[in-house]
TrEMBL record:
Membrane topology recorded in Swiss-Prot or TrEMBL: Multi-pass membrane protein
Keywords in alphabetical order: Membrane, Transmembrane, Transmembrane helix
Official protein name in the record: Nucleobase-ascorbate transporter 2
Record-annotated membrane-spanning stretches: 38-58, 91-110, 122-145, 157-175, 181-199, 211-230, 279-298, 360-382, 388-407, 419-436, 458-477
UniProt similarity note: Belongs to the nucleobase:cation symporter-2 (NCS2) (TC 2.A.40) family.
Molecular-function GO term, any one: transmembrane transporter activity
Gene Ontology terms: cellular component: membrane
Amino acid sequence: MAEPKPEEISHPPMDQLQGLEYCIDSNPSWGEAIALGFQHYILALGTAVMIPSFLVPLMGGTDDDKVRVVQTLLFVEGINTLLQTLFGTRLPTVIGGSYAFMVPIISIIHDTTLLNIEDNHMSFLYTMRAVQGALIVASSIQIILGYSQMWAICTRFFSPLGMIPVIALVGFGLFDKGFPVVGRCIEIGIPMLILFIAFSQYLKNFHTKQLPILERFALIISITVIWAYAHLLTASGAYKHRPELTQLNCRTDKANLISSAPWIKIPYPLQWGAPTFDAGHAFGMMAAVLVSLIESTGSYKAAARLASATPPPAHILSRGIGWQGIGILLDGLFGTLTGSTVSVENVGLLGSTRVGSRRVIQISAGFMIFFSILGKFGALFASIPFTIFAAVYCVLFGIVASVGLSFMQFTNMNSMRNLFIIGVALFLGLSVPEYYREYTAKALHGPAHTRAVWFNDFLNTIFFSSPTVALIVAVLLDNTLDYKDSARDRGMPWWANFRTFKGDSRSEEFYSLPFNLNRFFPPS
């Protein structure tokens, strides 16, 4: 038997991911793009409904309040997504609500001055205004770091090696939103997971008019089938005598969104009243803004790869963070009850559909704005049980995580130094937040528990985030451990081409501003 050739054993590293049907600046037909945009809109509903559904009752809000917050969040998501895809990084990323803001927001909810308000509706309004004020102040962090190019300077310390655990944990770090939620309603979650994998992978070669319809629209088809199945179980009385938690996760009529939603309602700034400002609340919220910045940086790099683009130059990344800061400012002005970050599940959907087109994401932003104004129609889609979304997350978060692992091809994985850094960063990135979660569940407060509430919020928020812990560990080790003699092992020669806008000729194709705006804002 002949000896295998070297090229038959290993695979050469590739700047751009191959095998995508449409990359960032190529577009499917208008009909296909609209259907794909609607699919991204449906996927974005999971987080947009889940966060208000958890927080609004804690604030004393009613179902009417919850619906208004969901509508407002979707409306601002649409605006932020358009701004990011037009003027920010220009990557095909949906800008959605972030779980990173939960810790400081829950801390605001438990502020004694707000808890002492007896009227539930007034308690909701005053808490909302306090959250708005904190978001408005904290948004300045991303605006300053982004537009001053300070974040671009920070990224000089990031190597492909350091980014592996960060991007990987952008996906893996959300494991608690996956199968643990599927397990709350196995009879819906498992069929959804199996059906989505079957359509998107095993039946992907099924074509209708030369279109791989099952692969391209696996999400919308499988959600439709399982949603109808869940409605059938609900209507037949299958959950009539089941525990309340089971009913909440399985029934299709427990969200109370459709009955509470108005037919037409346009969200507007300061609709909840004038925001209130408190230094302690703002400091705690700043930690969430920093976490959002780090998580989004990992997501932007994953989105660039899944859109078959080159890595975004430091200037472009910083510009995107600046616009994301503007997005958080809009969150505070409109009152969305959370800040903004890149929607990880929508990044994963780029890989699942093999369509990384920017136009598709811009169309999805149009759907968000349209259905947030037409309340009843939006509420119909928003009433999909969250278990169905969790089943899809099991696949899509995994795709994003694997993109992070794919950066290993640019580094020397036969180096003990590199193995040490990646292993320790990945392990601590999973282990530290898990410790914080378990501690909080038992003690009903985080491990940081001093008299300075803002300090507690800051530390607890930082260490609740897997990508943030991974970044701290990986970047620190990568820049202090034998770093002078390991540039090639770290992947720096490959990375250097994409550090500046003019370092690679393809950057102009992928990241130039529209309407010839580069004349007025020349990239560095």
